[in-house]
Amino acid sequence: MSMNTSLKSTALEPPKGAPWYRKLFTVYGMVVLTVVLFILFAIARPDSFATLLNFQLLASSKSILLILALAVTLPMVAGKIDLSIGYGVGLWQVMALLWQLQGIDYRLVILMCLVGGAIVGLVNALLIELAQVDAFIATLATAQVIYAITYWATGGRQVTDNTGMRASAFDALSTWSLGPIPGTFVIALVIGLLLWVVLEFLPAGRYLYAVGANPKAAELTGVRRRRYIVGAMVASGMLTAVAGILLSSRQAGVAQANIGSEFLLPALAAAFLGSTTIRPGRVNALGTILGVSIATIGISGLQQLLPGQFFLEPLFNGLTLVAAITIASLASRRRLGRAVEPSLPTQETSGDDSSPGGKESAASLPGTVDAVAAVSTTGSTPPEK
Question: pTM above 0.85?
Answer without folding.
Answer: no
